[in-house]
């Protein structure tokens, strides 16, 4: 009797990197929740996507919205994000992440950081981000499924998507200064964007720095660029730039 074909490929570092890139480069995502008023019937909405310093995805939502009310009643949710392009939509990479939502109160010490990181990624959110009914959620990943195209499916853990570095808090504290330095160095941005370097213009802006890389935005285009290695502190970021690009 013929063996059944393997549906999933072995999850390796290349798959983990692709999963993080696909996720981090999306402007928005579909979010599925369990609607309490319909006895837990699935409900799907769309939310702008941001990321905290540890790569936990974040969303901003009005407490008047159905999906917000659902998350406050049942923290389980699923997020779908992916690339698009010509041809068959199913030929492009996408990732589904099962999460547990954590509401972040305005009194939480993390709130200011989430607000700043979200606004740099989505500046038009300035119009409503401080409305009293709006609330941030950290969507803590539990597990994920990456489909990188036909015959390229992988199962990932929540930790596969996260950054666990002792340097996170120090980098977060120095992020404003680091962003100013990075955005003044277009040669560095050209390096980080790799094959996209021909598109580098003053319009490209680094919007976030963490221990593993940077997020960049130009209009509606988002890019994620990883450092050659994980950095150990803010000075390590600066030293890397001096060594590699100046």
3D architecture notes:
This protein is of the alpha+beta class. It folds into two domains: 10-162, Pnp Oxidase, Chain A (Roll); 163-246, Split barrel-like (Alpha-Beta Barrel). It has seven helices and eleven strands. It has helices at 13-24, 66-73, 111-121, 168-173, 175-183, 186-193, 234-245; strands spanning 28-35, 41-48, 50-51, 57-62, 76-82, 94-104, 134-147, 153-157, 205-209, 213-218, 221-226. Strands 1, 2, 3, 4, 5, 6, 7 and 8 form an eight-stranded antiparallel sheet that branches. It has a three-stranded antiparallel sheet with strand order 9-10-11, with helices on both faces. Strand 1 (28-35) and strand 2 (41-48) form a beta hairpin. The radius of gyration is 19 Å and the shape is globular. The protein starts with 12 loop residues before the first helix and ends with a helix.
Computed structural class: alpha+beta
The shape is: globular
The CATH homologous superfamily of the largest domain is termed: Electron Transport, Fmn-binding Protein, Chain A
Largest sheet: 8 strands, antiparallel
* Overall residue-averaged pLDDT value: 88
Helix content: 25-40%
DSSP helical segment count: 7
Low-confidence stretches: none
The CATH topology of the largest domain is: Pnp Oxidase, Chain A
Radius of gyration based on Cα positions = 19 Å
SSE order, one letter for each helix or strand: HEEEEHEEHEEHHHEEEH
Distance between the termini: 62 Å
CATH architecture of the largest domain: Roll
- Domains (count): 2
- Strand-residue proportion: 25-35%
Query: What's the count of strands?
Result: 11
Tell me, what is the CATH class of the largest domain?
Answer: Mainly Beta
């Amino acid at each position: 009797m013929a063996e059944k074909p393997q549906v999933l490929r072995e999850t390796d570092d290349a798959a983990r990197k692709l999963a993080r890139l696909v996720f981090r480069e999306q402007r928005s995502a579909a979010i599925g929740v369990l609607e309490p008023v319909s006895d837990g019937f699935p409900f799907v909405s769309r939310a702008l996507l941001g990321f905290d310093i540890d790569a936990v995805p974040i969303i901003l939502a009005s407490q008047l919205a159905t999906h917000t009310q659902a998350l406050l009643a049942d923290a389980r949710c699923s997020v779908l994000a992916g690339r698009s392009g010509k041809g068959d939509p199913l030929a492009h990479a996408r990732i589904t992440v099962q999460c547990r939502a954590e509401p972040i109160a305005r009194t939480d010490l993390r709130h200011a950081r989430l607000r700043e990181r979200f606004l740099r990624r989505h500046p038009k959110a300035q119009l409503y981000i401080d409305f009293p009914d709006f609330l941030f959620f950290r969507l803590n990943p539990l597990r994920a499924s990456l489909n990188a195209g036909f015959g390229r499916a992988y199962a990932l853990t929540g930790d596969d998507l996260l950054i666990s570095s002792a340097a996170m808090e120090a980098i977060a504290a120095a992020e404003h200064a680091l962003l100013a330095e990075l955005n003044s160095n277009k040669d560095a941005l050209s390096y980080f964007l790799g094959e996209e370097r021909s598109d580098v213009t003053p319009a490209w802006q680094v919007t976030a720095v963490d221990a593993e890389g940077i997020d960049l935005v130009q209009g509606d285009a988002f890019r994620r660029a990883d450092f050659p290695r994980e950095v150990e502190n803010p000075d390590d970021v600066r030293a890397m730039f001096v060594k590699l690009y100046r």
